Amino acid sequence: MKILLTDKNIEELEELVLSLGEKKFRAKQILSALTQGQDISNMTALSKDFRVKLGEIADGVGVYIAEKFLSRDGTVKYLFALRDGHVVEGVLMRYKYGNTLCVSTQVGCRMGCKFCASGIGGLIRNLSAGEIIGQILAVNLDQGGTIEDRAVTNVVLMGSGEPLDNYDEVKRFLELCRDVYKISWRNLSLSTSGLADKVKKLADDGIHVTLTISLHAPFDEAREKLMPVNKAYDIKALMESARYYFNKTGRRVVFEYAMIKGVNDRREDAIKLAELLSGFPTHLNLIPLNYVKEHGALTPTSKEGIERFMASLEGMGVSVTKRRTMGSDIAGACGQLRRRYLEDKRD
């Protein structure tokens, strides 16, 4: 397969254009075109001969919008086509402070969380750093953004896949965001199911993004049933890695908690959660469970139940909010649109 230009930083682009007999400044022209979502054939700042030569060995963005759906609440769900025919998802969510794009880091996922559609069918392959970047560039172009005035202001790695299971490419993606595409780490969030060793490595490597950890149960027995990763990294190891991340980076850690009726919404769950989250700056995000038909045995906690649980936590001093449900009318949850698309293709 051809090389992907979005995988490269400016120094690597300079090496590439020099190897093709062009002047070094062409690298900046290529980068400028990439930030506008342009493929090689549309890079009119380059000569036609150079575009042909470059196109023989490279692809530009390498990620294309196959389908998109607009929700009643303004959320946009994207299905991205990759160069090898695989598809991944992204979701653009609109907030008062800007537009947040949720991107995918893998085709499929091998974590096997019982409430998530992304892992049904397992892991197909990792995405490269450039393919993750390409999702941002494609949406920015689609939404009419420019280099100076981006339509995508914040990025969360919370789509299909476990980012820390694709550690090297995700680390490179984050570095490219900061160094090449000028997206501050303050505007980048990474969500993990809890690979504790990789959480510590992230801190040791100086990656100071907002860390979000999927907790979903405060007791090991319940969490193992929901999230098989807990067998390798139990709650004690997970909380130790979260504290380590805070101590190294100074960044508050956010915990995600999908509310599941009769599983993790009891008074004793709230008490244990308050105990786990004490002692260092944390925030808890309560999430109304998205229904996934393949996991029909799990049902969401009622709205009233979530409110009671939240009030109980607040009474114990926990910083907690309830996440606003977005895009439910367009299969907004991770993996749902991709599965529907693949099922339609089979039919």
Structure explained in plain terms:
The protein contains eleven helices and 14 strands. The chain is an alpha/beta fold.
Order of helices and strands: EHHHEEEEEEEHEHEHEHHEHEHEH
Largest sheet: 10 strands, mixed
Q: Which fold name is given in CATH as the topology of the largest domain? A: TIM Barrel
For the record, what CATH class of the largest domain applies? Alpha Beta
Strand order in space, largest sheet: 3-4-5-6-9-10-11-12-13-14
Counting helices, strands and paired strands, the structural category is: alpha/beta
* CATH H-tier superfamily of the largest domain: Aldolase class I
Oligomeric state: single chain
The N- and C-terminal alpha carbons lie at a distance of: 29 Å
Q: Tell me roughly what share of residues is in helical segments.
A: 25-40%
Number of helices: 11
Tally of structural domains: 2
Average pLDDT reading: 92
In terms of DSSP E residues, the strand content is: 15-25%
Secondary structure: number of strands: 14
The radius of gyration is 21 Å
Which CATH architecture of the largest domain would you pick? Alpha-Beta Barrel
**Unreliable sequence segments:** none
What overall geometry do the principal axes of the alpha carbons give?
elongated
